[in-house]
User: What shape does this take?
Amino acid sequence: MKSPLESNLWKFFLYSATQRRHYIPILSIFFLTLPNTHAQQIGLYSGIGYLASFILEIPSGYISDVFGHKRTLIMSKIFMLFSTTLFAFANSLTNFIFGSIFLSLGFAFSSGTNSAFMHESLIAINREKEFTKIMSKISANASLVSMALIISLPFLTKISIVAPIKVSIIFDIVGLIVALSFISPPERKGFGKTMEVLPKLLKSVIGTGFYPTAIFVGAIFGVLVGSAPYRSVYLESLGFPIMFIGFVMGFSRLIWFLLGRKMHLIEEKFGVEKILKFEMFFFPIILILVVLPLHYYVIGAIFTLATGYFWSRAQIINNHFLTAFNIDPRYKATMLSIRNQVQQLFQFLIVFFIGFVMKKSYIQGHLVLGVSLFLILLGVLIYVKLTAEKI
Assistant: This one.
């Protein structure tokens, strides 16, 4: 007889599908249609939101581990609903600032919690060894839903530039209902006080490779996600038809779907260390390629490939952090939040400072990102080599 916890698998698929922000490609374009706005302000409202997420990333992990993973996922969905509503009815920079704050809070409260919640669910039904396989397939299948919604963008924007955002309000309501129906796996007891536990947690993974790996994947995350608000406006500046910009993000979900369903095989064949060494070259080269004098459809295809691969391998990274660094099983969400805070730091710095470069030239901005990312990743690998830590 199947455990009731098995239902968390299909429910998490629905939750993940409604958590995706398919309207992101047109969000910055919508913002620039408002009075008295300019490209540098995209970095301002995004950066403020990322700062809020950065500040609350670790506290959100503690809330999750102590207050409960299910309750935290519910809170995440409520924040997402607030965010979408603010964006849908925005008429000023202020609305975008608060919408971005709630969006970042929604991601902060789910980023480590979703993996911790599902990992505990799989342990409870004796399927924890299938974590990468199951979670990658769930994410890949959810990406198909996201792809359909993103590809619908040009048709919805013909009705109104904010129509895709208003559709997301319905999805967030569905996601909230699903989150309320999750079944909590048996929770671990024996937590200490927050301020007493954190220093011990920080020290417990010193020398294991946790921190250099967090910096490595955090730099990639920060650059790829932090520069995302400029992707659509850059393509538009090259002459890419606005009605097709959604297809770039949409087809990246197709790449995500195709690769995500096989990522556990790639993990088994190559291992995380080889995958990360490949990424040290792959992502910087991508950012440099998009500044070359290529046809804008080719540049769009490059963005599609890079984005699809980036998200498809996310569960490999999550599984690595959950299993490779001797993390106390009572504090999975907290430790993932520490990893995520490193990502948020890079993301905030990229969004906040790259706006000054992007305002002058989108080409120069992407070139600076590519070179900087390579130097950071190379520096981490040199440190790992010198200290004999593992990545």
